[in-house]
Design brief:
The protein is α/β, with parallel strands linked by helices. Helices cover 46% and strands 8% of the residues. It binds magnesium ion (MG).
């Protein structure tokens, strides 16, 4: 069979609370211990250097200085969890120029503001060295400022948490059996979430139902495009080597479903408790209903 089913994560396979109430607090709570243990690791040390550079760049463009919260009247600090962001995740724009500068809260550091080249940042090197990366990271976490070195470090902390078994990716109870069954029936399965592909793989690789990665063929994040844009879904279909009409997308968010519809995909809305049913969409209460819909309408 050459049909693909593409799933959103938050509100679709996984509770909205998992990211907000488990993942982000976990990274915050384990920051000090993680840096105490792994601060000398080359990849971690590189991230900390990047944190200092971002902090120094922020100080140069901003008064009050770096550790202050973003301007309350500025762009809204994003509390968007992994995959409900209406636009590309500012920390992972397709190209790290205007997008991050536009999306980050006013006064927040951004990829665009950060010196790219250490050699060109002599002016900032001295002040960067004097900055406490832990304080910067904590301030950014508290203000939910999405900058690349923070996101990278959060990913490393989650990776360690998943590896130790302390973190498990949440899935609604009925998701894993249906995923296995759909895969066994020949459907090609993929994920499209604004959480990074690395975070998606960790979630499904260390889920409450075990390792589901053998069932999932492909992962897409906002590097492919915004979740409300038809071009993103066209790109996903192309990457899967299928016409859009051979793909179906499932999400809790109406604008995302409209993006998939506009690309020519089939779509249906997962209406979990707390989700508002969107007019004009097919509503599915859970993955058992999804399974039945697929059998009836997308066989
Ligand atoms: Mg969602």
């Amino acid at each position: 069979m050459n049909r693909a089913l593409i799933f959103d994560i938050e509100g679709t396979t996984t509770s909205l609370a998992f990211v907000k109430e488990t993942l982000f607090p976990y990274a915050e709570a384990h920051l000090d211990a993680f840096l105490d243990t792994h601060g000398e690791r080359p990849d971690v040390a590189a991230v900390l250097r990047e944190v200092r550079r971002f902090g120094a760049a922020q100080q140069r463009v901003e008064t009050p200085p770096a550790a202050e919260a973003p301007t309350p009247g500025g762009a809204t600090p994003s509390t968007q969890p992994l995959d409900t962001a209406p636009s590309p995740d500012p920390a992972e724009p397709p190209s790290d120029s205007a997008a991050s500068a536009a999306e980050a809260p006013r006064g927040a550091p951004s990829d665009a503001a950060a010196p790219r080249d250490a050699g060109a940042a002599d002016e900032g090197e001295g002040e960067a060295a004097s900055l406490d990366p832990r304080a910067l990271l904590k301030a950014w976490m508290a203000a939910d400022v999405k900058v690349t070195p923070l996101k990278t470090l959060q990913g490393l902390i989650w990776e360690a948490g998943y590896a130790s078994g302390e973190l498990r990716g949440h899935l609604y109870d009925e998701v894993a059996p249906v995923v296995r069954s759909l895969c066994e029936r020949g459907y090609r399965l993929a994920i499209f979430s604004s959480g990074s592909v690395a975070a998606q793989r960790l979630l499904f690789g260390h889920s409450v139902a075990g390792d589901l990665t053998p069932y999932i063929e492909a992962y897409f994040d906002t590097r492919t495009g915004a979740k409300g844009e038809a071009v993103s879904y066209k790109a996903i279909a192309r990457a899967l080597g299928l016409p859009p009409a051979s793909c179906a997308f499932f999400s809790d968010i109406a604008s995302e479903l409209r993006g998939a519809d506009a690309a020519g995909m089939r779509s249906a809305q997962l209406v979990r408790p707390g989700t508002t049913p969107a007019p004009g969409q097919t509503h599915l209460s859970d993955f058992q209903a999804l399974n039945a819909w697929v059998s009836a309408h997308f066989a």
